[in-house]
Amino acid sequence: MANEVNYKVEFAQKYFNIKLCNFDVLRQVDLLIKDKKGNILLYIESKDIISSDTEHQKALAQVILTNKKQEQILNKVALIYKDKENNDYLELIDCSQNGIMFNNDINWAKEKASQPTKDAIDRINDRIKGNITQYINDEIAEFYKLLEAGASTQIDITGSNFISVYNEWKHNVIFKHEIQDEQDNINLFLVDILNGATYKTKIESEMFGEYEIELIREGTNLSKYRIMYADGKIDGIKYNGEKQTFYYEISNAEKYDFFWKKYKRPPAQSEFLQILEHSAKLYSEKYRKDTGGEYTPSCFVEKQNEILKEHYNLDDFIVFDPCAGVGNLQNQFGKDYKNSCYLSTLDQTDVDICKIKGFENSVQFDYLKDDKQPKFKYKGKELEITEIAKLENKKLMVIMNPPYQRIKGFKEDLAIEFFNKVIKLEPSVIVYYCKTEFFLRDTVKNYIKSNYKIKSHIFSNAKDTFLLSEWSVSQVIFDRENGDEITAEIIRADRYDYNEKSDKLNFIKSYIYDNSKPNLIKEIEKKIIENSTGHIIGQYCYLNSVLKISNGGKEKKSKITTDNLKWCLLSKGLNFNTHHRYFEWNYLVYRGGGERYFTRII
User: What is the 3-state secondary structure (H, E, C) of 417-446?
Assistant: First the structure.
């Protein structure tokens, strides 16, 4: 009992305005919430941990019986509790439906809220089924704000909370056949939050003035999906493609309805556009690694545009992106400039998103399939980007974040393949995202061979920015005329770290990387082997920051001895420098015979 008392107080302090809460009042009300005028908003039954269906059903019956005992019977009451994993729950019960409070098949006078009979528990739970909305953890605070404001307690789906909604949706909206493809799952989620809505957009015309049309390209082919019902209940979602039809059947209609009770659908059009713009965040890290698809975070895009503004006048250029994805790299350019952007992407679904963002010059094209270039509609003709630039009397700028992966059939990493094909267009400027390691490997020869110069080179940690593992991502601006010469020996770059509070990249240091020095790790490993005499005290282990001290291991080359211990310790000490979190453990980074491999520019 003491735990329940403590829990409801802690719960109120965490999620409610404690000054407007009363405990153990009226007739067995555990927690009562009032508004600022003193009006009663909610009766709450409080439990500590509910770990079984039987306990849960009894608690739900108790809150209904408590409501019935009051002089003022409310249309909504709530149950609060936590589960075994310490998640907080608030379940809101709508008592205005199905004669919940006024059906005479229960002897209300004799029933005790503290110890309801099994008959009362069964009857009450049968009636309130379908009238419960469940809020978990942070959603409870959002619910309270809405309750206090006297608004609907359905939570809006926004560009800020859509990721958490999606993660919960995946666990609650279950299809009869498991959906393997993450893109399918994301499409279905976007369709589901629209709930059949079709937005409208304003069009201006010299002849007709301003008028509205239906926006049928809501993104990711959503116009080809339909939510299907049977006997008034959700049955599934149907996809009618040009070549194929799929039916995604819902496994549990009641669970589906239960989940969606707490969210308001559809989201506002402006919020839905925000969700589309950042929808790439819904992909798992594994999916993005496996497919080579990356979205470019806004912090990198903002820094990109700052640097471009410093060195170039965008009005002198038209922009081409051969691997545009959903157009994140160009989306901050502004509405007017989007007509000067030409985007090509592998998936038609991404073309739909690009077009709703205002990139009308967007096409589906497999850029690495052959030597051909995509064609765009220009004044009634189908033209390549170089022809359009010539007719516009503008220079060509390529901005791209290509996939970073090696796949069968290509000699180089796909990012290098994109670069090598793009330079055939002879653009004046290339804004290019890649692994920083490409400058430390033999792959740097591709950049040298291009005869471009480097106007800007910044790098940051992929874990902080792209939500991937800890390796370094570079943003490089290549220029045909101006900048530093590219060599295999000296790499110059500015390091930026991500600031979560400001959502921006902050400058840290400028570096010169001496790529001509020997591999430091290999040099140390030579020393370990050369000095493997002396008393054996363990084995060398390649796990980060680990040395294995044990008996045995005489027959192994990787032995630790009293003579080579300092070299073994040095090899592990490398993991504590500030660049380990950028480059991981590899031979490319650590250079020199024990000297510092980066020299700060002063």
Answer: HHHHHHHHHCCCEEEEEEEHHHHCCCCHHH
The two structure tokens encoding residue 422? 């793009």
| Dihedral (Cα; 333, 334, 336, 342), 10-degree rounding | 40
3-state secondary structure of 412: coil
Q: Measured in whole angstroms, how far is the alpha carbon of residue 356 from the centre of its chain?
A: 20
Long-range contacts of 194-200 (CB under 8 A, 24+ apart): 194/218, 194/222, 194/265, 194/266, 194/272, 195/227, 195/265, 195/266, 196/226, 196/227, 197/265, 197/266, 198/223, 199/269, 199/272
Q: How far apart, in whole angstroms, are the C-alpha atoms of residue 114 and residue 62?
A: 7
pLDDT of residue 556: 67
pLDDT in tens, 225-248: 889 999 889 999 998 877 788 999
DSSP per-residue codes, 367-399: TTSSS---EEEETTEEEEHHHHHHHHT-EEEEE
Residue type for 178, please? E
Name residues whose C-beta falls within 8 Å of residue 263's C-beta, 6 or more positions apart in sequence: 154, 155, 156, 157, 165, 193
CA distance 167 to 486: 45
Distances (CA, A) of 468 to 281, 303, 464: 11, 19, 8
- Position 3 scores a pLDDT of 67
Rounded mean pLDDT of 380-397?
96
Which is it for the CA torsion 454, 459, 465, 471, positive or negative?
A: positive
Residues 445, 447, 448: CA angle, nearest 5 degrees: 60
User: Rounded distance, CA 508 to CA 490, Å?
Assistant: 20
Handedness of CA 11, 15, 19, 25 (dihedral sign): negative
CA distances from 541 to 391, 407, 547, 593 (A): 62, 31, 6, 21
Provide the whole-model pTM: 0.60
Decide: helix, strand or coil at residue 55.
helix
Give the phi and the psi of residue 37 in degrees, each rounded to 5: -90, 0
Q: Are 363 and 376 in contact (CB under 8 A)?
A: yes
Task: Give the model's pLDDT for residue 583.
Answer: 46
Question: Which residue segments constitute the domains of the chain, with CATH numbers given?
Answer: 2-153 (no CATH), 156-282 (no CATH), 289-514 (3.40.50.150), 520-600 (no CATH)
How far apart CA 165 and CA 473 sit, in angstroms, is 29
pLDDT in tens, 51-104: 899 999 999 999 999 999 998 999 999 999 999 889 999 999 998 876 788 877
Q: How many CB atoms lie within 10 A of CB 211?
A: 10
Strands in 286-338 per DSSP E: 317-321
Which residues, 6+ apart, have CB-to-CB distance to 182 below 8 Å? 282, 283, 284, 287
The lowest-confidence range among 26-30, 199-203, 466-470, 540-544 is 540-544
Helix (H, G, I), strand (E, B) or coil at 313: coil
| Nearest by Cα to 460 from 450, 470, 448 | 470
